[in-house]
């Protein structure tokens, strides 16, 4: 609670003419520090912190496209984001086209007449990397706002605003917080747009609370050292998995045989973070046997913590999609997403080796 003894002081703060805080839903010191910190890391003028990554995404979409438009979204969009577009925005009049944004010619065609394009720096769950720089240039030529979900990379590994993005969003629940103990989202961009977004978040009652803001700030203090270790460990595990007999395919953007290798090497020169995926022989039954054999890794729907976890997209991130839709993306009954933690890399590799033996 913010207490005042002078009516003029309160009035000046409420009008935005004087710095300060007057009502917790509108602003508070912890949230303000978090917003400034993430904005600075992303090279943005300002930021807005929301109650979850999904709340941040919703606010970002509505501030860039307040009226129904055609939205072009990456075909591999996170299942929760895809569900928001299909189940909430399409009924409100928005038209959504899911496009393979790693195909620049397909992206170019799709952007004709679009009112918004949404991409992920590293896609979920197959960890492909679209050429954000090329897409950003296309979007600018056509005056189409470009929203990038930078959750998997974080601003330590990629700064999409420098590549042409209009706004950048994060599920701060993941790497920014880093300890699997908060739910938060952040969007960053130019000050004017963020002012509109802040008002919308306040009106809809979805701002981030002060304690989770404090937890996210705590996480940011170790972000650089964590992301370096996540990146090293994930590439180490991905490389080791290529020789495991039970594994039919490994998805990591910095493996030399990855379809994203050339783009990822250019856009992510300092590493690709802790996310990877693989396909295992035997489908769901094999995945279940592997989970029971793990001694270090655990199964969890979320990601980005210091501990190594796996998820099963068929029933977690992409459960809202049909089997056919998942198959078209390359997500099958044997696909497993891995959030590689910061444990000793030898221990991580050994755990997957024995679990898949």
Features:
15% strand; alpha/beta; 357 residues; seven-stranded mixed sheet; five-stranded mixed sheet
Notes on the structure:
- The chain is an alpha/beta fold.
- 41% of the residues lie in helices and 15% in strands.
- The longest helix has 19 residues, at 223-241.
Contiguous runs where pLDDT drops below 50 for at least 5 residues: none
Shape: globular
Largest sheet: 7 strands, mixed
Query: How are the strands ordered across the major sheet?
Result: 1-7-6-5-4-2-3
Structure class: alpha/beta
| Gap from first CA to last CA | 57 Å
Q: Indicate the proportion of strand residues.
A: 15-25%
Kindly report the average pLDDT value: 94
Please write the string of helix (H) and strand (E) elements.
HHEHEHEHEHEHEEHHHEHEHEEHEH
Helical residues, percent: 40-55%
Q: How many helical elements?
A: 14
| Number of distinct beta strands | 12
Rg of Cα set: 21 Å
